[in-house]
Amino acid sequence: MLQNYLKIAYRTLLRYKAYTTLNVLGLTLGLTCTILIFMMVKFHLSFDQYHSKADRVVRIVSLFNSPDGEFHTPGVPAPLGDAARTEIAPLEKVSMVYNENNVTVALMEGNVPTKKFKEDNGGVFFVEPDLFSILDLKILKGNVQDLKQPNVVFLTEKTAKKYYGDTDPIGKTLRFNAQLNAKVVGIIQDFPSNTDIKGSIIASYLTRETYNPDWVKYMKNHWGGVNSATQCYALLKPNTSVAQVQKLTPAFMAKHYAKAEDRKSRLLYIQPLADIHFNDNYSGVIPKRMITTLGIIGLLLLITACINFVNMATAQALKRSKEVGVRKVMGSSRGQLFWQFIAETAIITIVAGILAYILSSTLFPLLSNWQEGLIGYRMVFAELIDLRFWIIFILTILLVIFISGSYPGFVLSGFNPVMALKGKISTQSLGGVSIRKALVVTQFVITQILVIGTIVVSSQMNYFIKSEMGFKHDAILQMPVPQNDAIKLSTLKTQLKGLTSIEKVTYVWTPPMSLSNNTTNVKYDTRQTDEKFNVNTKFADEDYVSLYGIKIVAGRNIAHIDTMREALVNEEMVKRLGEKANDKVLNKILEFNGTKVTIVGVVQDYHVMTLHGKIPPLAITSSTDMYQTITVKMNMADAQNTIKKLDKIWSATFPDFVFEYEFYDEAIGKMYQMETAMLGLIQAFALIAILIGCLGLYGLVSFMVAQKTKEVGVRKVLGASVGQILWLFGKEFSLLILIAFAIAAPAAWWVLNGWLQDFEYRISIGVGVFAVAIFVTGMIAVITVGWQSSRAALANPVKSLRTE
Amino acid sequence: MLKITSLEKIYRTEDIETVALNKISVEVKSGEFVAIMGPSGCGKSTLLNIVGLLDDADTGSFKFNNEEVISYNERKRADLRKRNIGFVFQSFNLIDELTVYENVELPLLYLGIDADERKKRVEAVLEKVQIMHRRNHFPQQLSGGQQQRCAVARAVVNNPKLILADEPTGNLDSKNGNEVMELLTDLNSNGTTVVMVTHSEHDARYAHRIIRMLDGQVIMENVLS
Predict the structure, then answer these.
(1) Phi, psi of A637 (to 5 degrees)
(2) Candidate from B74, B97, B106 with C-beta closest to A330
(3) Is pLDDT above 70 for A427?
């Protein structure tokens, strides 16, 4: 019997090629997107879950409470590691780590550098030996105990291969940023792609002391400063919960902070390993809400594809009525007929499933490349295929077969055989139009929500990129400053200024808006205690304000001084200090990090962080030691030539380093990469959902046209115009679109308004967005319905009546 | 074999009630060949559908082999149908996606007969109706006569006790029509009961008895010698 079912299913599908193609295409598209989304979600959910003790691994991170809210950073004070190791009993192992990107690594032959490499993806990872007990880092050569010495490194297999090819790297010497020599003592297995805790080079934590003497001087034993790259990982003792350790942190902090206000404002948060990838408060790469959004879009796509299938199959049912009648006459039970139609659905779904698998494995590298370009993670399709994938895939296919096949199967098998044989199956016999109407409404709802979502996310993105940031960012090119030698820096600046295509040059720690921010507490004027808020500090020279077009609203610019002596503050700072007018702060002393500077001017507020965050109080001061970037405002007329000249001068100044540059506009764009990624995905998947919806509508309209052939003929004979005939079909869909809109508009508003709340600066959702959504769905209906119904309207009435 | 007593069937819409069968009583004995005649809308097809357990009656009694079947549920009707009744329709009602062989095989599949037995029976019946040579063709590749012979083959392949034929020659020319009637007569002479609805006096003469209907009632019965 099954063979008979499959045979007839196969022949029916071949016979109704258009129907089969539309159905297979719709399901294939839906399933392909679902697989792609599933893979992406699976990849992100798998982050760092491969460590054998993953459920016991935590990261200790910082949370600052201030009157203006909470401030989060994954960094901790440098001495925290040693203290936690001895004072927090439930911690079995503790390792401080420090990640330094953009390191120029030179391979040394004696004292001569032979090759230079820039390590910017993962960079140099300074770790304590205990990290090897916390995480599953596999040593291929060398001994973990070697990491107890300074100036030694392990290379990953990939880095070793990149540096030395097939030569054994053990015992070789590397030089970091032309200032520190380190010996290769081991090789570790490459990090998998699904980890946030990684580096190209693993250096002993003690190496940091020789690598960065200033860190020893200012940070190593100070509980005051926090750098986001200085982090602490720990392994909980077995049977210890995160909550238990969390409870111990206030007492621990109290021991190290004498002042009551510090104890109140500085908190530690024990972050489970599973939270690291998703918690954007602590530099998590992809917020959980995005994973959820993706999952929902995947589900909506699958639902759309199923609805599409049901609509088309039910519409097609009319053509199968005779067969149903005959089979019933021959003694088929309703159950047998039901399973026959399920078998047909199964064939379509399985074919679509196979095609979707092939298509998704073909498209996956594109998705992976795109994601890698945006957030730096490469996904490999084959690595994500496991038993779990197959179980979920097969269950999904079964679910789709059941959901999509059962309604048409139920309807078809319920035909009255006499009516079926006479070809008198009516719309009512197909379960009434109401269920299919409900399905079409659902499809319209999904489409409208996706259209509204796409518009709102795009508008918010454009608002980010195009809104006034308070400083100039075009035609600005930035290069690194690898060495802070005052004479070198001065010469370089003079040389660059000498180029005709360079208008301005300035040294900065980071540009006005950056993801790297330094905050500190300050003491103002004669006040005895620190202010209750943290201040964002920027280090820059006297050309900073003019290059970035930042307005000075009171006082004057800072003078050309190499050390911290004068400062500019922003208007927000003046407000926070409680001063009534900008000039009140002029010539007052500001003390931070133990250094006193004089406030000489006030600048207009500008955005320091991305538009996700509020403008914080800000202090700008000069300090040659802190400059990391040299920025030029250039004439873009002959940009390529200018860049060549910059390369020449820069490389002559820093011969041990690799020249690189970035336009500031591009750097700003990268700060919104998560939004860009989200937008891209929503746009792509929304488009596909709309396309699938169109296929479903097309199927439904074909059915309606077939149903109304006689009615159209009669109406035309009685004098109806083409327009009136079109409206016969159009009015039904207009009503469905309006009903869908009544559901979609408030739902979309609720979801998107919630999403927008994450942004300090955001657009408001206007009426226009909803108007566009209804217009787009209207147009979709007009195009899909219009073509089919105009064919009916233009047909010769004699022919249509004869058909009946 | 069939005993119908005071059977009533009314089609109802919101405003109109149409009496299709008006307390009709008919009896058909085993081995009989009965023709039902009457003008369009007299209820003859409705009667045939009820006899074939394809449709319900509103009131009355219908005994099939002395068993009351009027209250059977759909599953029991399907079961009784597939074991005892073969159908031949005016418009053949072959499944277009199946070959001649597969169409004829269909009732046997629903009876759960094994493949070897099915093959034997299908080939035998195809030989009998002389379309063995077209066994692998699809219905649309056959002439009307061949299609109806295929339909007859399908109706008799499970050796039913009763064949119900609804204007079996209505779509055929006289030559093919006669061939089909010969087939039915032949089956009847081998013991199969045949009930046939027809407009054709010529076809009706193949029967033992003609039941004439009007407005849902039997108005006359003629026994043919």
Answers:
(1) -60, -40
(2) B106
(3) no
Please report, for residues A31, A115, A712, the alpha-carbon distance to residue A355 in angstroms, rounded to integers and kept in the order given: 9, 48, 39
Contact B75 A4 (CB under 8 A): no
Does any CB of chain B come closer than 8 Å to the CB of residue A333? yes
Q: Which residue among B55, B74, B94 sits closest to A418, beta carbon to beta carbon?
A: B55
The residue assigned the tokens 């519409």 is A315
For residue A372, CA distances in Å to A61, A122, A358, A367, A677 come to: 27, 14, 22, 8, 10
- The DSSP bridge pattern shows strands A230-236 and A91-100 to be antiparallel
**B170 interaction partners in chain A (CB closer than 8 Å):** none
Q: Considering chain A, what percentage of its residues have pLDDT values greater than 90? A: 41
ipTM summary value: 0.80
Which of A330, A339, A340 to mutate to test binding with chain B, by most B CBs within 10 Å of its CB?
Answer: A330
Are the CB atoms for A74 and A516 separated by under 8 Å? no
Q: What are the tokens at A129?
A: 């030996």
Question: Which of B54, B55, B75 has the CB atom closest to A333's CB atom?
Answer: B75
Distance CA A187, CA A154 (A): 5
Alpha-carbon distance values, A464 to A426, A507, A668 (Å): 55, 26, 10
Name the token pair of A479.
């290069």
Segment (H or E) for B20? strand B17-28
Query: Can you give the pTM of this predicted structure?
Result: 0.78
Q: Please answer whether residues A636 and A475 qualify as being in contact, where contact means their C-beta atoms are separated by less than 8 angstroms.
A: yes
Q: Residue A804 above 60 pLDDT? A: no
Of B75, B87, B102, the CB nearest to A329: B87
- Are A327 and B93 an interchain contact pair (Cβ–Cβ within 8 Å)? no
Confirm or reject contact between A12 and chain B (CB < 8 A).
yes
For B74, which residue in chain A has the nearest alpha carbon?
A333
Mean pLDDT of chain A: 86
| Plot region of A305 (φ>0 → left; ψ -120 to 50 → alpha; else → beta) | alpha
Would you tell me the crossing angle of helices A673-707 and A17-45 to the nearest 10 degrees? Answer: 160
In chain B, what residues touch A328 (CB-CB under 8 Å)? Answer: 54, 78
Q: Yes or no: say if A131 and A95 are a contact pair by the CB < 8 Å rule.
A: yes
At B33-87, the pLDDT tens digits run 999 999 988 999 899 989 998 888 999 999 999 999 988 888 888 888 888 999 8
Hey, what amino acid is at A528? Q
pLDDT at A801: 58
Q: What is the pLDDT of residues A689-746, one digit of tens each?
A: 778 877 777 777 777 777 777 777 777 777 777 788 888 778 888 888 899 999 999 9
Instruction: Count CB atoms within 10 A of the CB of residue A498.
Output: 11
pLDDT digits (tens, 9 = 90+) for A2-53: 777 788 788 888 888 877 888 888 889 999 999 998 998 999 999 999 999 9
| pLDDT (0 to 100) of residue A798 | 65
Distances in Å between the alpha carbon of A163 and those of A122, A244, B67? 16, 45, 93
Helix (H) or strand (E) holding A620: strand A618-621
How many whole angstroms separate alpha carbon A339 and alpha carbon A336? Answer: 5
